[in-house]
UniProtKB/TrEMBL annotation:
Transmembrane segments: none annotated. Signal peptide: none annotated. This is Stringent starvation protein B. GO terms for biological process: positive regulation of protein catabolic process. It comes from the Bacteria. One of its GO terms (cellular component) is ribosome. It comes from Pandoraea iniqua.
Length: 153
């Protein structure tokens, strides 16, 4: 009997759909390793937060193993590739509601000691603001309620 498929990619797709159906902006918090393709200048403490809304991405594909899309970072269009085991959380920017996940221990073990830089190609000079972190207060001085994330194992 083949190994059972993880529920994580299905939960990610369901929460993405819930966010978009309710007019919320879906964000992914991602653990960055050598296999993660993101612009390294936006990685902080080995993590990056990505806006995966329809308006912010092009060609979004949420498969069982990889999440892939193109997005603008500092006005520059770049290809993003994230392994599903590296997703730490998916949540709505507006209220913080969503779900957190533990990082797959095998994904961390596979991470190389060095992170490679991904070259960027200029296409526009539009700047995107840094996204809020899950559980944070959003914009400075914001009194928005904090969301609740649930760890799924």
């Amino acid at each position: 009997m083949p190994p059972e498929t993880s529920t994580k990619p299905y939960l990610l797709r369901a929460l993405y759909e819930w966010c978009t159906d309710n007019g919320y902006t879906p964000y992914l918090a991602v653990h960055v390793d050598a296999k993660t393709r993101v612009p390294r200048e936006f990685v902080k403490d080995g993590e990056i937060v990505l806006n995966i809304s329809f308006d912010a991405t092009s060609g979004l594909q949420m498969g069982n193993d990889w999440i892939e899309f193109s997005a603008r970072f500092g006005g520059i269009s770049q290809k993003v590739e994230v392994q599903v085991p590296n997703v730490l959380a998916i949540y709505a920017r507006e209220n913080g509601q969503g779900m957190a996940f533990p990082v797959d221990k095998q994904a961390q073990a596979d991470a190389g000691p060095e992170l490679e830089s991904v070259p960027s190609s200029p296409e526009s000079d539009e700047d995107d603001p840094e996204p809020p972190r899950p559980g944070g207060n959003g914009a400075a001085g914001s009194n928005a309620p904090r969301g609740h994330l649930k760890v799924v194992k």
